[in-house]
Amino acid sequence: MSSFDETIARRRQLLKWMSASPLLAMPGVASLAAENPVYAPNRLPDPVMWAPRTLDKLIANPKEAINVFDFEAVARSRVPPAHFGYMAAGIDDDVTLRANREAFLKFYLRPRRMVDVSKVDMSVEIFGIKYDNPIFISPTGGNKAYHADGEMAVSRAAKVGNHLQMLSTAATTSINDAVTARGAPVWFQLYATTDRDVAYALTKRAENAGSQAVVVTVDRVGGRNQEALLRLRRTDYRECRVCHESGDGGGSGGDRARRPNYDGIDLSKVRSMQSDNLTWDFIRQLRDKTKMKIVLKGIVTPEDGKLAVEHGADAILVSNHGGRGEDNGRGTIEALPEIIEAVKGRMPVLVDSGFRRGTDVVKALAMGATAAGIGRPYLWGLGAFGQAGVERVLELMRIETRAAMQQCGVTSVKELTKAFVAKF
Questions:
Q1: At what angle do helices 302-310 and 332-343 cross, to 10 degrees?
Q2: The pTM is what?
Q3: Rounded percentage of the chain residues whose pLDDT exceeds 90
């Protein structure tokens, strides 16, 4: 191989790495690409590298979207740089952010033929409530940072497709309003803070609003170095103080105490909005404070899965915060089978982080997950087109999930077993 060919090969490897990184969205990289055609990435981050989707031909409306990735570039063009950076950022080297996607390629589905799949039932039942599909909406904070309608638009979109929705403590919409917009119970994701009284007050508020479950986040115990956010924030020249002080803005957490779910709750004893003093005893204590189901979000090892059962949790959400909590380097789809095995059917196990395709969902279901959640994709849809964008993102996920089930030769989620998925 000539030195020129070696140079081109190295550049291609660089572009391949760049395509999986949120750094691609940064102005500096865009400028480099514009000035140096050899480096110019001609398509967005997408595991299908040859997909003919270019940066200069964005979709004009939700119906033009072919997959959920089509919304990302539109959202990037419409959402303020700091807000987009907050959503896109992982942590440190973004190893876990990339691993969440790459790990799906380590597993393959095993199609079965000659089965009548003209009618497919995608419904699932969780805690006695039936949902039309196994795709749930993971909790994300500060949705008004991406669109003025914020979580209300997401709740209304969830209602259209009858999706389970989880609302963040740090939402820019109250749990009461979200439940009203959804027209059904919404699970409440809890940031416990360092003050247990705050955690109990938030839990009580959610229960009074009609929430069915409190989703205790256990993986946010300290700070994080979100490099994509910090770099994009330097390019954002807006006056951010007014929005953040009112609690209507999104972003890096300085305004969280002003979010509506905290209204009327005494925060004077809170040392940190994170939960660095959270222990297993808290789960037992919380059990005495609420009649809601208790779900633990952020479990990524079988050891903690067993402890969740022992300490009376009702379900587990296998999650690494979309690669935003800590950079452990392992995708949740890899951790899922071990936790399923550890739990041994004693509670539902849900999963999120990195889900973008219907095949991703079906792989998780075949491994034994009860449902699979999406986060960033619906935020791309929200930032791009509001409620209509979220609806289309969810619709595309349903379409792909149904097709993947048909290719597996199953007519209901209940028929998916470990026999339909294998590891390379």
A1: 40
A2: 0.85
A3: 71
